[in-house]
Each structure stands twice: as C-alpha cells, then as structure tokens.
Amino acid sequence: MSGGVKRDRDGNARAKSARDDAPRGQFHDMFETFRDELDEHYDRRERIIKVSRDVTALSKKIIFSLQRVKNLHAEFPPNIQKEVDSRLAEISTLLNSIAADLTPLNRQRYSYSLRCLEELVEALSFAHYLRHQTLITPAETQAAVPADVQISPFDYMYGVFDLFGELMRFATVTTAQRGELVGNDEGRNILGDIHELGCAYEMLPEIPTKDYRQKITAMRQSVVKVEKLGYGLVVRGSERPKGWVPDMKDDAPDPSSP
After folding, report:
1. What is the residue-averaged pLDDT of the chain?
2. Where is this region: Disordered (predicted)?
C-alpha cells in the first residue's frame, strides 16, 4: 500500500520537507499502513454519508408524490408513477455507487451513517400499501430495493414505524376530501389497517433505546389521530363542513409521556 499525499488544511498537496527524507524507523511502515487504512475509512464514510443524504431526500420526494394519491388498492396515476420510477432510478444509481463499500463487516460499521434505508423502506412500504392495501414483507422490500444493498431487520422495522405517520397524513387528507375513511369495496378501511398494524407492533419486544421509545410514541400518536377521525365521522359527521380537517392541537396529551 503506497503512502498518502500530505495536504494542508485547504486540501492542497504540501511541498516535500526535509523531515520526509529523515531515516525510517522500524515502525515507520506499520504506522503508514495505519494512516492509509484510516484515510480509506474516512473517505468511505464520507461517500456513504453523501449518498445517504441524497437517498433520503429522494425517498421523501417519493412520499410527497404518493400523498397525492386519492384511492387505495388501485394503480397510481401516470404522472405520479413516472415521478416514483424516476426517483427510484436515481436511488438505484446512488446506492450502486457505494455497494462495494458495504461489505458485511462495513455494513455494520457504517450502519448509523446509512439511515437513508429506513426512509427508503418507508417510501416503498407506503407505495405498496396504497397499491395493494397490505404491508410489504421484508423479502418484498429487499426485492424492491433498486441496488445490491442489504436491508437489515432494523431498517425494515424502523422504516415501517415511520409508515404510521404517512398513513395518518393520508387518512386525514382523504377524509377531509371524501367525507369518509378511505378503504376498499369489501369494507376494510385505513382505520382498521392501522389498528391491525399497531397491535402487531405493540407485541414486539421492547428495545431499550431512545430511537425505539421515540418511534413507538410517535406510532401511538398516529393511531390515536386516525381513531379520532373515525370517531368524528361517526359521532358528529353530519355537522362537519366539506373539507373539514381535525385540529390536532386539541389532542389530549399522551398519558404515557413524562
């Protein structure tokens, strides 16, 4: 492994100094190897962070496009499908550019720098729900990821955690527009779906981390908001003007929160 190029604080190559011609000690080669390995680590980490930031932004744009869908269990309008396909193609190019950096060992080492996969799972699961009114499975998620990058169980779990917020927003907008909870012809609506998914997540063994506690709290808040939509339609539906949207500021505080 060749020695690196010494640079100043602006990234410019430094002129060779007299110290560079000093006699080499017995540990010189070993420390040069350490230096090169650290340089490779920081370069790899910067590449992953940059791609993660770009994939996160594209995934959010996919979600914003999907929030314009009005029906469940139906194909997307052509303009929305075109936007989703275009952004997934960009995500594929970005993830493929760092696939070689994510060997099994490095995948764990840089997992925190690759949080974009949670956002991507959220986008894929939201698209799958809107089209099929079912939850995407881990295998379907992996097959839908447009690159040779592995989706870990935590990527999947936390991505679906974030899906609750999108389902709540979708339910709020469509209820205001239609005057009813969106569903299918068989009588299944989004309130029943979010209840079923929420019950499944409540049965998960608790993970003693701050991230998990925050996500489970946000999930419960989203479920309660969709419940209030349903209650408002049943109890006072005839009094609601067309286009009514519930005032979430009036929500009672979560009794489980400190």
Report:
1. 83
2. 1-23, 238-258
* pLDDT attached to residue 21: 62
Cα–Cα distance for residue pair 189/233, rounded to 1 Å = 13
- Given this model, what pLDDT does residue 126 score? 97
Residue 193 exposed, middle or buried by CB count within 10 Å (0-12, 13-18, 19+): buried
Domain boundaries, the chain: 28-248
For residue 258, is pLDDT > 50? no
* pLDDT tens-place string over residues 8-23: 666 666 665 555 566 7
pLDDT digits (tens, 9 = 90+) for 91-131: 999 998 888 788 766 666 676 778 899 999 999 999 999 99
Q: Are 224 and 256 in contact (CB under 8 A)?
A: no
